[in-house]
Specification:
This protein is α/β, with parallel strands linked by helices. 50% of the residues lie in helices and 8% in strands. The chain is built from 25 helices and nine strands. The chain is globular and about 95 Å long.
Length: 568
């Protein structure tokens, strides 16, 4: 019988325990997804090059404390040949497994954070082991120790007695002082891969004689985010909810048990969004909202689906591990054929922006609805009767324009190091702007940035207006020259498009210059700053304070300026 089989047979006998405890590894061979670290530790023990202190770091549920206990058993195992006896046959391994070994002390630093606790520990370490080779201190969540406690440990860590070993575990290694880190041998435990965790859950399901679909197991893996303990806890909930073996639990039922949002709704919403079906989009979002899904959760899922669309479009044989069904994958793949990369980037930018916007309003639901409407009404051009939105690949003019733009971009050196004080896009000189058929009488004189914004609104150039308001830090605006600070978020075609439009509107040539100079704040930044200032002024006003006294639950929904329309 193999080590793996013996180990699992032991855990199978513990039927009265929850899965996370029942299937907790007892030997190195049972650990999931940490092969490299295990091999390094085993080699260190076999060569007798054991450090004074081990440090295991990683997210919750990847095996930090478990490895620490197995390591303690390996160091003190009575079987010197195997260095980790099977079934805890020796007395030392049995006592360590049951947390009652006198020479292996496990401490939770979250409850014992003070310097006095550490001093007691150091005092206890002065005495050698009673029944084993090493005295071992396992300190879990070590980052919770106070600064004074860490300082008290320094000397002992640097020059400990030969019989003393420290094993630290933490989820936040950045909070541990460098002086402590330098005295430890550090091991970074990785998130368990999707495939490894899925395979592990299949084995557990088989040993528990449960009939759970692979789609549900994939959903559990997705929700656990690489944590073995979290995945077993979720699987426990499924087992408790699926007592009737005759009726196999459906994926939808599992999602309801977990309170998990079905991403197929978001996939369908994006599909209808690309088709420009406003009524259907709002209906789908209302259904999502009625399920109790928070706006922020919806936005995060929206971003995740955009990411999948991008990968399906650009990566051959892309295999998503997002917990989506095969039907959703097929639909996403179909959607990816209808949308270009430029649109995906624009959608992503809009979606990220709304994440900060929803925090400024009391009704986040309405903010998300307006966000969807903004996406619906974006157009590459505003000609009447043109029903094709700018983001469909079916629009050949857009596609060809993108190809030209990308070809032109390749000729330019985009490296930041080579950006000089003033950079002028070559496309302004090489490419002649497309002249629209407008009467000379329709030509306008644009003398200011605000006037430019006004014309963009009149002409319904929504994309240009968005860039001007969000990503433009103006340095100067005069004599048909617009100087702006370099901004990474600026659309790569912005300068070419703006130059062309300005020529069409004014009948004059314009130069758009990029500079390293610090420009003014963008309009978006100014609006946000003003809003926060007005909000603070309002909260400090006597009117507001008096209102709060009378109405403790008072909440500021919106701040607006009232205009006196009298003739006085």
């Amino acid at each position: 019988m193999s080590i793996f089989q013996v180990g699992w047979s032991l855990m199978m006998s513990k039927n009265n325990k929850v899965l996370a405890i029942k299937y907790r590894p007892q030997v190195f061979e049972e650990l999931v997804g940490q092969k490299i670290i295990v091999e390094a530790i085993k080699k260190s023990i076999s060569l007798n090059t054991i450090p004074n202190a081990f440090l295991f770091t990683g997210i919750r549920g990847v095996g930090k404390t478990t490895i620490a206990r197995i390591l303690a058993k390996s160091l003190n195992c009575s079987d010197t040949k195997k260095k980790n006896c099977l079934n805890d046959k020796c007395e030392n391994c049995t006592q360590i497994a049951e947390s009652r070994h006198i020479d292996v002390l496990e401490i939770d630093a979250a409850s014992k954070t003070g310097v006095d606790d550490v001093r007691d520990l150091i005092e206890f370490s002065r005495y050698g082991p009673t029944s084993s080779k090493f005295k071992i201190f396992i300190i879990d969540e070590v980052h919770m120790l106070s600064k004074q406690a860490f300082n008290a440990l320094l000397k002992t860590l640097e020059e400990p007695p030969e019989y003393l070993k420290f094993i630290f575990a933490t989820t936040e290694v950045n909070k541990i002082p460098v002086t402590i880190l330098s005295r430890c041998q550090r091991f970074d435990l990785m998130r368990i891969s999707f495939d490894d965790l899925l395979e592990f859950l299949k084995k557990v399901t088989l040993m528990e004689n449960k009939n759970i679909s692979e789609d549900i197991l994939k959903l559990i893996v997705k929700m656990s985010e690489g944590s073995v303990r979290d995945s077993l806890s979720l699987l426990d909930r499924i087992f408790l909810s699926n007592d009737n073996e005759e009726n196999k639990l459906s994926l939808k039922s599992a999602q309801e048990i977990f309170g998990y949002f079905d991403k197929s709704y978001t996939v369908n919403l994006i599909f209808e969004l690309l088709k420009g079906n406003e009524e259907k989009v709002l209906e789908l979002y209302k259904n999502i909202y009625n399920q109790g899904i928070e706006p922020r959760t919806f936005i995060n899922n929206f971003l995740e689906i955009l990411y999948c669309i991008k990968n399906f479009k650009n990566i051959k044989n892309f295999n998503s591990s997002t917990g989506l069904t095969d039907v959703d994958h097929k639909k996403i793949e179909n959607v990816s054929q209808l949308v270009d990369n430029r649109t995906l980037l624009l959608f992503w930018s809009f979606t990220v922006d709304v994440m900060s916007e929803i925090n400024l309003v009391s009704n986040q639901h309405l903010s998300v609805e307006m966000f969807l409407i903004r996406l619906l009404h974006l157009r590459q051009n505003s000609q009447k009767g043109n029903k094709k939105t700018f983001y469909l690949d079916e629009d050949k003019n857009v596609k060809n324009d993108l190809i030209k733009s990308e070809h032109s971009q390749k000729k330019e050196n985009t490296s930041k190091e080579n950006i000089v004080n003033q950079i002028k896009y070559s496309s302004q000189e090489k490419e002649k702007p497309v002249i629209e058929k407008e009467k000379l009488s329709d030509k306008k004189k644009i003398k200011s940035f605000s006037q430019l914004l006004s014309i963009c609104t009149t002409k319904k150039e929504i994309e240009l207006k968005y860039e001007l308001e969000h990503n433009i830090n103006l340095v100067s605006f005069k004599n048909n020259i617009i100087e702006i600070s370099f901004n990474e978020n600026l659309d790569k075609n912005f300068i070419k498009n703006l130059t062309s439009k300005l020529f069409n509107w004014t009948g004059e040539r314009w130069n758009i210059l990029l500079t390293k100079k610090t420009g003014l704040k963008s309009l978006k930044e100014i609006k946000l700053q003003d809003y926060k200032k007005n909000l603070e002024n309002l909260k400090n006003s006597e009117t507001y304070k008096n209102a709060v006294e009378k109405f403790p639950d008072l909440e500021i929904v919106k701040i607006s300026e009232s205009k006196d329309e009298s003739n006085d």
